[in-house]
Amino acid sequence: MSLVAGASLLLSACSGGDSGSGSTDQNGSSTDVKSMAAGKAETGDLFKLADTPGYDGTVTIGIDDGYSGYNNQTPDTNSSYNNYVLTAVLSGTLKLDGNNKVLLNNDVFESWDVTQKDPQQVTYKIKPNVKWSDGQAYDCKDLYLAWLSQSGLAKGPDGKNPFNSASTTGYSLIKTATCKDNLTFVTDYSEPYLDYKGLFNAPAIMPAHVLEAKTGIADITKLAPTGDPAQIKAAGDFWSNEWKGFKADIMPSSGPYKITAFDANQKAVTLEKNPMWVGGKGGPSKIIVRAMEDTKAMATALQNGEIDVAASTQPDATAAQTMKGLAAQGVTYGSASQLTYEHLDLNFKRMFADKDLRKAFLESVNRKEITDKLLKEVQADAEPLNSVVFFQGEEGYTDLYSSKAGLGADAAAKTLTDAGWVKGADGIFAKNGVRASFKITHNQNARRSQTVEIIISQAKAAGIEVKDETDANFLKGGRVSTGDYDVALFGWSAQPFKAESKSIYVCPDNGGEQNYQALCDKKIDDAYTAAVKATDEQVKLQKYQEADKAIADDYATLPLFQTPSMWAFKGIDRVYMQSYDGVLWNVGEWEQKK
């Protein structure tokens, strides 16, 4: 799942090395991999694709799950795996390099400046002559639609917002959005928002001209929140429902590549160069992105020459061993910590409304056993993550879970006993006719199945029955977004903007559109509200820490670990798996390895 940080400034001109040199880091990565984290033409705070000779031929890439939607901003499409494809297809203001450095997409935008501090105003300048792949202008209307669709302010005839957006964080603070001219977009805020650079990123910006043509709306910019409700309804319905899968006539590209085919059965999407792209002209002639849910099979496919790049956000020890052993075939292997965390969400609408049960469950789960058994081959120093707002090594990171999780079976059993739960003849606690029995649900993923297998054993010793439920469509079939689970096991992937985590943890009726577990605590809401609008960095940090602590004190979520990525490639000069955007973030400058 996608959601909603940190940086090295160095630009390296090195091309990729051969991992066969024997020079590797502690995780088996080629030491040259770190030099591939910056774009070839990246300079300062600006990103442009380098104009390289390119790659004459087809590159096939394996990722963990399949593409499903052109609009990745609705709850049922919002996933990292769509983003991994769309990062090469759609353009926004923001580019993140492999070091998670925040950069302006200077192929498409001139600037993103705070033009007024109090009240805050941000002005975006689009470069002249930027076009969609259908020849239509990429202009201010596209940014306006991104705001309208995600502001939460639009109202249809029934008074409800017809735009079904996954999150409104940040956009909802923009009280007015104005096209000063075709290339100048001005946003005026109702309160300060320091993380404004996280808005209007690539997946957020849909082609307004397509929506206008298909709905009969003459000018989308006339649909301010007080515009014609019927037209707002038509726009919202189209935006929310029509940009699923792939339809060539309504899904043009504003990036270096365009989608030319999508096979939902084979879970494969084909990309070819966008002839209207204004930036560098390098990269492969054609790209095929294949979903390969079995990471071991992905590694074998690389070994057998079926794919050229294996890019997994789901670390697997056996697959890592296979890929590390392919150096003699000219394969380069890499691994890096992602801004992604694996976690368990407990559903407050079901039996986990009982805080004592939440507390006992967390106490029964030994996360170190999970990281030691499942991650060490991929990341030698892997350890449990003890925050859901901060990553290890970040300023503000505090260990909030070591005192709550992994305390052992006896501690968990005592918590239940003290709360009136009674162990039955079957060894499982029960209270008021309800047994301490529930499912942990996840997508089709071998490592997650192994995680649940470990937890089943740990929980059973404490008198808690855990069952494993695998649903291949769990993350994209509406079950997560509708809260259809007891415990959900998945990952959130982050940009470098803490404000965006607000939508996961504040009350659902207070901007928590991605709060699928129905957690609601005024302490969390108040802390996030203060943090998001803070203008003092220390105040902001303190308030995010308060939110983090309040979430932990509710025993709402159990972070397991910061998820390392692993990738391997051959025949290409340099590939780096960006934490949020995957390997295709700079595909337009890939070259054939000489």
From TrEMBL:
<dbReference type="InterPro" id="IPR030678">
    <property type="entry name" value="Peptide/Ni-bd"/>
</dbReference>
<feature type="domain" description="Solute-binding protein family 5">
    <location>
        <begin position="107"/>
        <end position="501"/>
    </location>
</feature>
<dbReference type="GO" id="GO:1904680">
    <property type="term" value="F:peptide transmembrane transporter activity"/>
</dbReference>
<dbReference type="GO" id="GO:0042597">
    <property type="term" value="C:periplasmic space"/>
</dbReference>
<dbReference type="GO" id="GO:0043190">
    <property type="term" value="C:ATP-binding cassette (ABC) transporter complex"/>
</dbReference>
<dbReference type="Pfam" id="PF00496">
    <property type="entry name" value="SBP_bac_5"/>
</dbReference>
<dbReference type="GO" id="GO:0015833">
    <property type="term" value="P:peptide transport"/>
</dbReference>
<feature type="region of interest" description="Disordered">
    <location>
        <begin position="16"/>
        <end position="35"/>
    </location>
</feature>
<dbReference type="InterPro" id="IPR000914">
    <property type="entry name" value="SBP_5_dom"/>
</dbReference>
<dbReference type="InterPro" id="IPR039424">
    <property type="entry name" value="SBP_5"/>
</dbReference>
<feature type="compositionally biased region" description="Low complexity">
    <location>
        <begin position="16"/>
        <end position="32"/>
    </location>
</feature>
<protein>
    <submittedName>
        <fullName>ABC transporter family substrate-binding protein</fullName>
    </submittedName>
</protein>
